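So, is this right?
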Amino acid sequence: MRPSEPDLALLRGLVEIPSVSRHEGDAVEWLVARMAERGFRANVDDAGNAVGEIGDGPVHVVLLGHIDTVPGDIPVRIDGDNLVGRGAVDAKGPLAAFVAAATEPMAGVRVTVVGAIEEESPTSKGARYRAMLPAPSWCVIGEPSGWDAVTVGYKGRLTLDVVLSREARHGASPGPTMAEAALALWDRVHESASKRATATRSFERLDCRLESIDAGIGDGLVERARLRIGYRVPPGVDPGDLESAAASLTERNGDTHVVVTTQGREEPVRTPRTSALARAFARAIAAAGGRATFKEKSGTSDMNILFPAWSCPMLAYGPGDSRYDHTPIERLSITDFARSITVLKWVLSRASDRII
């Protein structure tokens, strides 16, 4: 199976435009123009998202995928059945599939496609802006699940910046260095989190990682160290409790002053795999020759923001193997891209039925 030439050109053109998070403007403008050519009522919203609306009717469907990427220049090319390039999987492939599938309006259905900005940044500005708007009838988040799978759960996320500071000391002075003090603090935080990480299933387990450390920072008067600590939070664990626990552990530091700042926080989310929307995708995948599987992921997505705000039927779907996310060999199967468009068209064609 191959996509149409216009759909493949849409995918490749989108991937060819660099759109590192917080620098998505060129890709947003390009996608708005392409959607307008396809008959969408297209514009850039107040947050900077690319938005295209097509069709009319009482059923309102939002297909939201992020247009930003992580850094890393990967020359865009066709390699056999694969389109290689940064963002091909995460998540311009799913976003292009949304536009392709929605191009032909369905009776009684209004579809809004959103190319959201800053998903790869802690701000998630694009999704947070859309979350303030009225909830649709149902929503699909564009993330790589594989053409024959849907994602119904994401862990939450908590990111803390921890800055330690004290009066500068001579390098030969007794006692721990700032780097050693920072690592000792990290050990306490990690040990506290480990006591909660007792679940056997990965999705149910709390993860705590030291994402970065910068020590030996000073101006001759004050010396500093900075830690970035990241949690992946399963359902049933309150990120607020983790914030409080981390803050309490920083109080025992003698003459070292510690400031903890929350840089990002999303609640965990899990939607029913037995929902009418999930069943519709399962039927669509079967009609395309596959057998649907349901995934729960340790990462986060814009579903972590939109589901608590909208509480409408929701899941994540899109072509691509998430093992290629953020890697130097990011690539998307062109065949799977075409299959995902078929699945999405099937679901949209039944959006006004009681099946969803």
Observations:
- The mean pLDDT is 94.
